[in-house]
Amino acid sequence: MRPTLLAITCLLLTGCTAFRATDSTVAHRHTRLTVNIPPGWYVESLDPVAVLSRNGPPLQRITISATPLGRPLAGTQRTYNDGMLPNEVADLALGLVEATPGHANFARLRLEFDQLAGADAFAAEATFVDASGLPKRLRLHGATLLGHIIQVAYEAADAVYYEMDLAAFENLLESARITTN
User: Fold this and answer.
1) Where are the beta strands (DSSP E) in the chain?
2) pLDDT over 80 at 8, yes or no
3) What is the pLDDT of residue 7?
4) This prediction's pTM
5) Domain boundaries, the chain
């Protein structure tokens, strides 16, 4: 009974969420990765991933996730492991996106090396059609930081919203940093 009470207490207290937000930033509690919220965007949710949007998540969203190394990934027995190269992390991450129920016509457009908060990272781009039939474009950046795989993704309706909000996503990526407190 005690674990159930603890779980309920954690759900009721904002201190148990994976991320915390201010008016202008979102930060992950364990890795201290902090990013600036783009002007005009709002925080949709903070647990288990941070979700930001301007016009609503079905049209465009930025998600920030932190997966502990060694934790089994949902729907698979695979894990992210210490020592994985950025392209190996990218292959696993993109494979999980492709396997998402409701995604169709998945196509990888590019994969390259990048930096995220000063760490070696990958940058990938892909397209797919979501469960409602809406064509989407995805930009996904990821890196290993302080025992976690951090992924920052921008997903938007390809026809209008992707290009319109891409600069806001790029600015968010440029603001990514590890804070000391």
Assistant:
1) 19-21, 25-28, 33-36, 42-45, 50-53, 60-68, 104-116, 119-129, 135-145, 148-157, 177-178
2) no
3) 35
4) 0.88
5) 18-178
Residues forming beta bridges with residue 115, ordered by sequence position: 120
Q: Rounded distance, CA 151 to CA 124, Å?
A: 11
Class of the CATH-defined domain 18-178? alpha beta
Provide the residue type at 44 as one letter: E
Adjacency order of strands within the sheet including 33-36: 19-21, 25-28, 33-36, 177-178
Reported as a single tens digit per residue, the pLDDT across 53-90 is 999 999 999 999 999 999 999 888 899 999 999 999 99
Cα–Cα–Cα angle for 136, 48, 34, rounded to 5 degrees: 85
Instruction: Note the pLDDT tens digit of each residue in 111-137.
Output: 999 999 999 999 999 999 999 999 999
Residue 65 · residue 151 · CB < 8 Å: yes
**Which residues on adjacent β-strands are paired with residue 120?**
115
Q: Would you tell me how many other CB atoms lie within 10 Å of the CB of residue 123?
A: 19
pLDDT of residue 67: 95
3-state helix, strand, coil split of the chain in percent (to 5) is 25, 45, 35
- Give me 175's structure tokens: 């603001």
